[in-house]
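lol forgot to send this yesterday, sorry. struct tokens for the thing we talked abt
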């Protein structure tokens, strides 16, 4: 019998409790249009034809108070990039043990970043999109458990969260949607705030497996070439090197730190993250952004700089010097997943309504590996209701 999904289970709780529980319905939406200003370059899914589909979305959140400190929450979201097919983004139950301590179980957001809980709610931040160099991990939810402890440390507000669970779904790797599993996915994050200053740190681990065995690959696809190389290495008895090119229960670590300032009319945000899947072809990733903004009545103007650097340790190269052809091929496979880029974004947000904001961003992306430059402009309206 097929296992009942967490999302369906939580919806069953919501439905059966409707008669006796207070059910609140909230929602948010983003209508975003953008285009690349370079005819032969794409960025964030935009080419030189304007599109209002790629980053637009619509969501509803249902929350039921089940009495006795128990609540159930479900969030349904439809994304333009998925032809607005509705999916369950969140579905979980929460038990509030005390004012300081609460437990949750179900499908929830992985707390990678400062804006993780509001990642899809464009109204919650000043950009059209959060800085992609940092906010670029190709999955955002997990199914499992979470415990949150809120308290005071002197004059500071402290929030400590621990979580544990797993992810099973498709993620975008090498331009293909590949089946992936992250088991023993767990970690902690700690946030501190005082008046106009806040800071947070997160540390997350997992055992990661990604399957590259998918159909309908062309012969010149990078993934197809990688599979051929792995087969040749295994046939040649070089299984250790072959294992370095696959991702099978490999130890994964994520570390992130950041801080924010909201002082009078001045705004500042910065985050730094590191992400590594050890013993796989995936490059070690380090990235950061720094963003300054200034509030003028209902308008915020801002400038953001992002930096991304994905590379393999040089010691992983030249592991097969005794077989020059294979050594060169392995080096090429490792080098092909290297990335180094920076992005500068200038933009503005106008809160023209208590529940709506208009935004415009101009982003210039510099790829330091291919030595190319791409400009993208995007406008959008974010709503909450």
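and heres what i got for the seq, position by position
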């Amino acid at each position: 019998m097929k296992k009942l999904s967490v999302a369906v289970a939580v919806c069953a709780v919501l439905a059966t409790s409707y008669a006796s529980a207070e059910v609140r319905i909230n929602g948010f939406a983003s209508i975003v249009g953008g285009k690349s200003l370079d005819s032969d370059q794409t960025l964030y899914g935009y080419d030189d034809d304007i599109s209002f589909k790629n980053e637009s979305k619509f969501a509803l959140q249902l929350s039921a108070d089940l009495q006795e400190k128990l609540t159930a929450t479900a969030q349904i979201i439809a994304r333009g990039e998925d032809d607005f097919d509705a999916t369950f983004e969140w579905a979980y139950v929460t038990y509030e043990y005390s004012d300081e301590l609460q437990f949750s179980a179900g499908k929830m957001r992985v707390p990678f970043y400062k804006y993780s809980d509001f990642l899809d709610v464009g109204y919650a931040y000043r950009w059209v999109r959060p800085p992609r160099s940092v906010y670029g991990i190709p999955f955002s939810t997990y199914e499992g458990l979470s415990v949150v402890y809120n308290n005071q440390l002197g004059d500071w507000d402290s929030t400590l969260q621990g979580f544990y669970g797993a992810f099973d779904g498709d993620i975008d790797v090498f331009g293909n949607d590949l089946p992936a599993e992250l088991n023993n996915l767990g970690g902690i994050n700690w946030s501190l705030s005082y008046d106009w200053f806040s800071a947070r740190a997160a540390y997350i681990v997992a055992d990661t497996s990604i399957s590259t065995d998918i159909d309908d690959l062309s012969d010149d696809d990078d993934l197809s070439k990688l599979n051929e190389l792995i087969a040749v290495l295994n046939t040649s008895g070089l299984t250790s090197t072959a294992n370095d090119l696959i991702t099978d229960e490999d130890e994964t670590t994520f570390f992130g730190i950041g801080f924010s300032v909201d002082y009078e009319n001045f705004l500042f945000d910065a985050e730094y993250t590191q992400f590594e899947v050890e013993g796989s072809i995936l490059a070690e990733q380090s990235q950061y952004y720094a963003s300054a903004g200034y509030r003028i009545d209902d308008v915020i103007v801002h400038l953001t700089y992002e930096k991304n650097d994905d590379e393999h340790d040089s010691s992983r190269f030249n592991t097969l010097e005794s077989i020059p052809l294979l050594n060169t091929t392995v080096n090429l496979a490792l080098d092909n997943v290297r990335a180094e880029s920076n992005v500068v974004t200038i933009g503005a947000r106008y809160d023209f309504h208590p529940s709506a904001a208009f935004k415009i961003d101009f982003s210039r992306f510099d790829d330091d590996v291919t030595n190319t430059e791409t400009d993208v402009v995007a406008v959008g309206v974010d709503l909450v209701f």
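The chain has a mean pLDDT of 88. anyway ping me if u want another try
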